[in-house]
Amino acid sequence: MPPPDTIAARRNEPTQKHPPTRRGRKAFTSATAVLRNLWRRLTSMHTALVLLFLLTIAAMPGALLPQWSTSRVNTSKYIADHPEIGPWLNRLGFFNVFSSPWFAAVYLLLFISLIGCVTPRSREILRQIRRGPPATAPRNLSRLPHHEAFTAVGDAADAGERIRGRLRRTGIGGWRTAMRREPDGTVIVAAEKGYLRDVGNLVFHISLLALLLSTSVGSLFGYEGSVIITAGSGFCASSPIAYDDFRPGSMVNATTTTPFCVDVDAFHATYTEGGQATSFQADIRFQDGAELGTDTWQRRALEVNDPIRFSGDRLYLMGHGYTPTFRITYPNGAVRNYQQPFLPSDSMFTSEGAVKVTDPPGYPRDQLLKNQLAIVGVFAPTALLAGGVLSSGYPSQLSPGVAVDIYRGDLGMSTGRPQSVFAIDNTQVARGLLVKKAHAVLAPGQSTTLTDGTRITFTGAKEFVSLQTSYDPAQGWALVSVLFMIAGLMASLLIKRRRVWYRIRPEPAPRADPAGSLVIEVGGLARTDQAGYGREFPSLVALAEDSSSVAGRRPAAAVKGQ
Question: Residue 430 has what DSSP assignment?
Answer without folding.
Answer: H
